[in-house]
Amino acid sequence: xxxxxxxxxxxxxxxxxxxxxxxxxxxxxxxxxxxxxxxxxxxxxxxxxxxxxxxxxxxxxxxxxxxxxxxxxxxxxxxxxxxxxxxxxxxxxxxxxxxxxxxxxxxxxxxxxxxxxxxxxxxxxxxxxxxxxxxxxxxxxxxxxxxxxxxxxxxxxxxxxxxxxxxxxxxxxxxxxxxxxx
Length: 182
Known about the structure:
The chain is about 75% helix and about 0% strand. With about 180 residues, it is mainly α. It has a domain at about 1-85. Helix 6 (about 115-165) runs antiparallel to helix 7. The two termini are about 55 Å apart.
Protein backbone atom coordinates (compact mmCIF):
# COMPACT_ATOMS: atom_id res chain seq x y z
CA UNK A 1 0.00 0.00 0.00
CA UNK A 2 1.30 3.45 -0.92
CA UNK A 3 1.53 5.85 2.01
CA UNK A 4 -0.28 8.52 -0.03
CA UNK A 5 -3.27 6.18 -0.38
CA UNK A 6 -3.66 5.45 3.31
CA UNK A 7 -5.56 7.06 6.10
CA UNK A 8 -2.91 5.91 8.57
CA UNK A 9 -1.76 8.82 10.70
CA UNK A 10 1.86 7.68 11.01
CA UNK A 11 2.33 7.06 7.30
CA UNK A 12 0.78 10.41 6.40
CA UNK A 13 2.70 12.38 9.04
CA UNK A 14 6.26 11.57 7.97
CA UNK A 15 8.12 12.09 4.72
CA UNK A 16 8.47 9.31 2.16
CA UNK A 17 12.18 9.06 2.97
CA UNK A 18 11.48 8.80 6.69
CA UNK A 19 8.84 6.17 6.02
CA UNK A 20 11.25 4.05 3.95
CA UNK A 21 13.94 4.28 6.62
CA UNK A 22 11.41 3.41 9.34
CA UNK A 23 10.07 0.42 7.37
CA UNK A 24 13.60 -0.83 6.70
CA UNK A 25 14.38 -0.56 10.41
CA UNK A 26 11.19 -2.37 11.42
CA UNK A 27 11.84 -5.10 8.85
CA UNK A 28 15.11 -5.87 10.66
CA UNK A 29 13.48 -5.83 14.09
CA UNK A 30 12.11 -9.09 15.49
CA UNK A 31 8.69 -9.17 17.16
CA UNK A 32 7.26 -5.93 15.81
CA UNK A 33 3.82 -5.25 17.27
CA UNK A 34 1.46 -2.31 17.70
CA UNK A 35 2.85 -1.07 21.03
CA UNK A 36 6.40 -1.17 19.66
CA UNK A 37 5.34 0.91 16.64
CA UNK A 38 3.61 3.41 18.97
CA UNK A 39 6.79 3.77 21.06
CA UNK A 40 9.05 4.14 18.04
CA UNK A 41 6.72 6.70 16.42
CA UNK A 42 6.87 8.82 19.57
CA UNK A 43 10.62 8.34 19.98
CA UNK A 44 11.66 8.92 16.35
CA UNK A 45 9.05 11.39 15.09
CA UNK A 46 7.56 12.86 18.29
CA UNK A 47 4.22 11.57 17.03
CA UNK A 48 1.52 10.15 19.28
CA UNK A 49 -0.63 7.49 17.66
CA UNK A 50 -3.25 5.16 19.07
CA UNK A 51 -3.27 1.37 19.24
CA UNK A 52 -5.58 1.06 16.24
CA UNK A 53 -3.37 3.29 14.12
CA UNK A 54 -0.23 1.40 15.17
CA UNK A 55 -1.83 -1.97 14.42
CA UNK A 56 -3.17 -0.71 11.09
CA UNK A 57 0.33 0.52 10.22
CA UNK A 58 1.80 -2.87 11.09
CA UNK A 59 -0.76 -4.79 9.05
CA UNK A 60 -1.11 -2.56 6.00
CA UNK A 61 2.01 -0.45 5.59
CA UNK A 62 4.66 -2.71 7.12
CA UNK A 63 2.93 -5.84 5.80
CA UNK A 64 2.90 -4.44 2.25
CA UNK A 65 6.54 -3.44 2.55
CA UNK A 66 7.54 -6.92 3.75
CA UNK A 67 5.58 -8.52 0.90
CA UNK A 68 7.35 -6.32 -1.68
CA UNK A 69 10.71 -7.24 -0.12
CA UNK A 70 9.79 -10.95 -0.28
CA UNK A 71 8.88 -10.64 -3.98
CA UNK A 72 12.11 -8.77 -4.73
CA UNK A 73 14.07 -11.50 -2.98
CA UNK A 74 12.29 -14.17 -5.03
CA UNK A 75 12.97 -12.25 -8.24
CA UNK A 76 16.63 -11.83 -7.30
CA UNK A 77 16.87 -15.57 -6.70
CA UNK A 78 15.24 -16.28 -10.08
CA UNK A 79 17.65 -13.91 -11.82
CA UNK A 80 20.63 -15.52 -10.08
CA UNK A 81 19.35 -18.94 -11.18
CA UNK A 82 19.08 -17.74 -14.80
CA UNK A 83 22.64 -16.43 -14.70
CA UNK A 84 23.92 -19.76 -13.35
CA UNK A 85 22.21 -22.16 -15.73
CA UNK A 86 23.37 -22.98 -19.25
CA UNK A 87 19.89 -23.15 -20.78
CA UNK A 88 20.34 -20.12 -23.01
CA UNK A 89 17.80 -18.12 -21.03
CA UNK A 90 18.59 -14.47 -20.51
CA UNK A 91 17.78 -11.88 -17.90
CA UNK A 92 15.09 -10.62 -20.27
CA UNK A 93 13.56 -14.11 -20.26
CA UNK A 94 13.47 -14.11 -16.47
CA UNK A 95 11.92 -10.63 -16.41
CA UNK A 96 9.36 -11.72 -19.00
CA UNK A 97 8.45 -14.77 -16.91
CA UNK A 98 8.07 -12.58 -13.82
CA UNK A 99 5.84 -10.15 -15.71
CA UNK A 100 3.71 -13.00 -17.04
CA UNK A 101 3.36 -14.35 -13.49
CA UNK A 102 2.27 -10.93 -12.24
CA UNK A 103 -0.27 -10.65 -15.07
CA UNK A 104 -1.60 -14.11 -14.21
CA UNK A 105 -1.87 -13.26 -10.51
CA UNK A 106 -3.59 -9.99 -11.36
CA UNK A 107 -6.12 -11.73 -13.60
CA UNK A 108 -6.72 -14.53 -11.11
CA UNK A 109 -7.30 -12.11 -8.26
CA UNK A 110 -9.61 -9.61 -9.87
CA UNK A 111 -11.86 -10.48 -12.83
CA UNK A 112 -12.05 -7.89 -15.59
CA UNK A 113 -15.39 -6.39 -16.55
CA UNK A 114 -15.27 -5.64 -20.26
CA UNK A 115 -18.24 -3.26 -20.01
CA UNK A 116 -16.12 -0.95 -17.84
CA UNK A 117 -13.82 1.42 -19.79
CA UNK A 118 -11.05 1.22 -17.20
CA UNK A 119 -11.14 -2.58 -17.13
CA UNK A 120 -11.25 -2.66 -20.93
CA UNK A 121 -8.09 -0.54 -21.07
CA UNK A 122 -6.42 -2.91 -18.60
CA UNK A 123 -7.51 -5.91 -20.68
CA UNK A 124 -6.03 -4.34 -23.81
CA UNK A 125 -2.77 -3.58 -21.98
CA UNK A 126 -2.63 -7.16 -20.70
CA UNK A 127 -3.24 -8.48 -24.23
CA UNK A 128 -0.31 -6.37 -25.49
CA UNK A 129 1.90 -7.76 -22.71
CA UNK A 130 0.94 -11.33 -23.58
CA UNK A 131 1.48 -10.70 -27.30
CA UNK A 132 4.90 -9.22 -26.57
CA UNK A 133 5.80 -12.27 -24.49
CA UNK A 134 4.79 -14.58 -27.31
CA UNK A 135 6.89 -12.58 -29.78
CA UNK A 136 9.87 -12.98 -27.46
CA UNK A 137 9.18 -16.72 -27.23
CA UNK A 138 9.15 -16.98 -31.05
CA UNK A 139 12.39 -15.01 -31.30
CA UNK A 140 14.01 -17.27 -28.73
CA UNK A 141 12.86 -20.40 -30.58
CA UNK A 142 14.26 -18.99 -33.83
CA UNK A 143 17.57 -18.22 -32.12
CA UNK A 144 17.74 -21.71 -30.62
CA UNK A 145 16.94 -23.32 -33.99
CA UNK A 146 19.67 -21.25 -35.64
CA UNK A 147 22.12 -22.26 -32.89
CA UNK A 148 21.12 -25.92 -33.28
CA UNK A 149 21.71 -25.82 -37.05
CA UNK A 150 25.10 -24.21 -36.45
CA UNK A 151 26.07 -26.91 -33.94
CA UNK A 152 24.86 -29.65 -36.28
CA UNK A 153 27.00 -28.20 -39.06
CA UNK A 154 30.03 -28.04 -36.75
CA UNK A 155 29.41 -31.65 -35.73
CA UNK A 156 29.26 -32.70 -39.39
CA UNK A 157 32.54 -30.86 -40.14
CA UNK A 158 34.20 -32.35 -37.05
CA UNK A 159 33.19 -35.89 -38.02
CA UNK A 160 34.54 -35.29 -41.52
CA UNK A 161 37.84 -34.03 -40.05
CA UNK A 162 38.10 -37.12 -37.82
CA UNK A 163 37.60 -39.42 -40.82
CA UNK A 164 40.09 -37.48 -42.96
CA UNK A 165 43.31 -39.51 -42.72
CA UNK A 166 45.27 -36.82 -44.57
CA UNK A 167 45.08 -34.52 -41.53
CA UNK A 168 47.54 -34.83 -38.67
CA UNK A 169 46.32 -34.87 -35.07
CA UNK A 170 47.58 -31.31 -34.64
CA UNK A 171 45.70 -30.15 -37.74
CA UNK A 172 42.50 -31.79 -36.50
CA UNK A 173 42.91 -30.18 -33.08
CA UNK A 174 43.58 -26.77 -34.64
CA UNK A 175 40.47 -27.02 -36.80
CA UNK A 176 38.33 -28.00 -33.82
CA UNK A 177 39.71 -25.17 -31.70
CA UNK A 178 38.98 -22.71 -34.49
CA UNK A 179 35.55 -24.18 -35.14
CA UNK A 180 34.46 -24.11 -31.49
CA UNK A 181 36.33 -20.98 -30.46
CA UNK A 182 38.46 -22.75 -27.88
